[in-house]
Amino acid sequence: MTTVSRRELLFGALALGASPTLARLSPDEPQDDASAPRPVFRRTAIGDFEVFSLQDLTIVLPVDQAPFVPSVDREEVSRALAAQGLRTGSVGLEINVLAFRKGTEVTLIDAGLGPQAGAQAVPALAAAGIDTKDVKAVLVTHAHPDHIGGLLKLDGTPAFPEAEVFFPEPEHRFWSTQPSETNVADEAESDRRVRARDVQRTLKALGERVRVVEPGKVVRPGFVFEGAFGHTPGHCLVRAESNGEQVLHVADTLHHAFLMTERPDWCYTFDADPVAAVATRKFVLDMAVADGLRLFGTHTPFPGFGRVERAGQSFRYRIEPWVY
Ligand SMILES: [Zn+2]
To answer: Considering its fold, how many domains does the chain have in total?
Structure first.
């Protein structure tokens, strides 16, 4: 596990490898620390797809330094964590990446935080017996560093050399058109521009591998982007379906499976548009209950599968028991 402040996450220090706490996680160095990340995956099936959940990294956000829910008093957040039987001083932000294999072709949904941060999605893919050349498509739910950092190798070249990389159209449009000149006085504006610059660099490095798809359209057989805007302007879910079985990848609708289902009105610290993010979360949770959906979350407890049920005026998250 890796402990970072909100600022390190927010300003991309993780993706840039600039944090001293992460220096020891460099893949070039021997990792003899028992707490250092190791490649871990779990395998399941959805219809004709062989499905792999890849454990990328777990980031620990101390509640007192990095308010997970900035609009809510920290004591109240701690009380809510305690009520769920969880430790109260920090919250764990897990990062999970989902891979689908059919025949020899592999489709990824997001790519994790990337090698600069010592994240493990690609090593976990290798542990599952999948070569990066087998990945023919990556569907990007949104362009935050914990979702696109893994698209590039340490040398800045594409991590998946034979993959088309699909972005939801509104997400691609937003980041492509943001100003990225960083020499501005306002700190918050400068930070926003650093994020935009990093996304634009990634898009440039991917070059003609980039594909732009409207939400609601089939991205490739079995995969559809569904608009779930608010966390970012073009944030999308991915619904994957095969032979009557499906999973809804909820991406960053649930940053904390238990808090955000019990209090869907609480806004996560990185939600760009808090009002839209909360409305989207409630809509997705309502739909998940009504349709009895199997969910997968980037930030839900590994291996990331679960369901939600109604609990009074709110919801309750149920981790899917894993069958090995
Ligand atoms: Zn995320």
So the answer is: 1
Residue 243 covered by a domain: yes
CB 227 within 8 A of CB 170: yes
- pTM value > 0.85: yes
Asked whether residue 324 is assigned to any structural domain, the reply reads: no
Cα(174) to centroid(ligand 1), Å: 17
For ligand 1, the distance from its centroid to the CA atom of residue 304, given in whole angstroms, is 13
CA–centroid distance, 269 to ligand 1, in Å, is 11
pLDDT grade, residue 322 (50/70/90)? confident
DSSP code of residue 290 = H
Residue 13 has pLDDT above 80, yes or no: no
The pLDDT of 226-253, averaged and rounded, is 97
Q: How far is the CA of 318 from the centre of ligand 1 (A)?
A: 20
Range of the domain at 204: 2-319
For residue 71, give Cα distances in angstroms to 7, 51, 229, 265, 268: 17, 37, 20, 10, 9
Q: How far is the CA of 147 from the centre of ligand 1 (A)?
A: 6
Distance (Å) from CA 218 to ligand 1 centroid: 23
